[in-house]
Amino acid sequence: MTQNKTKESIDTLKKEARKKAYSYEINHHCCSQATMQALQEVLGMENELTLKATSSVCGGMALSGNTCGALSAGVMVMGMKYGRGDIKEDFTKILKGMLPAAKLVKWFENEFGTVICRDITGFEMDVDTLEQAMQTPEAMLESLDQEQVEKCSQLCGKTAEKVIEIISEEE
Question: Measured between alpha carbons, how far is 100 from 94 in angstroms, rounded to an integer?
Fold first, then answer.
């Protein structure tokens, strides 16, 4: 495969990841799952337990507005791709996964000005409000600010695209 072909295929993967993450977030919500699902599909790393684990990370960690869920999912993918697979393995395996993850975090901070969900989107929810939302999830979904949903969807797409770019640079 020529270098142009490789660049073209990487560009195709980046566009696909961006499109999928955007679509999953705008249609199904949960930034961390949207980003994870898109990346799992594009990278051929589907794993139901990992996808389920990301469900509690959306909205800045359990809708608390803390660390962005899309970023968290991207960091998790870096760990899935490069991290230590057994706790007994050498510590250098951890570092191998940390470097691409650190690149993603640095890019994210530069791109969005922070890693904190509430600072990017203005969204956060406390436990009492979350408990109320559990009683009427449809009402919660209907009350979502559509500008906020669009912003998060764009962020998921950009983050998924950047993960593919960083992975392509690592290989």
Answer: 11
Distances (CA, A) of 13 to 82, 139, 163: 19, 36, 10
Name the percent of the chain lying above pLDDT 90. 71
Q: pLDDT per residue over 7-28, tens digit each?
A: 889 999 999 999 999 999 999 9
What DSSP element (H or E) covers 168?
Answer: helix 146-170
**Whole-angstrom distance, CA of residue 88 vs CA of residue 76:** 19
Give the Cβ contact number of residue 150 at 10 Å. 13
- Using a 10 angstrom Cβ sphere, with 0-12 exposed, 13-18 middle and 19 or more buried, the burial of residue 85 is exposed
- If one counts every other C-beta atom within 10 angstroms of the C-beta of residue 50, the result is 18
pTM: 0.90
| Residue type at 76 in one-letter notation | M
- Dihedral of alpha carbons 105, 96, 73, 163, sign: positive
CA distance 3 to 127: 51
Residue with tokens 């690149």: 103
Q: What is the DSSP letter of 55?
A: T
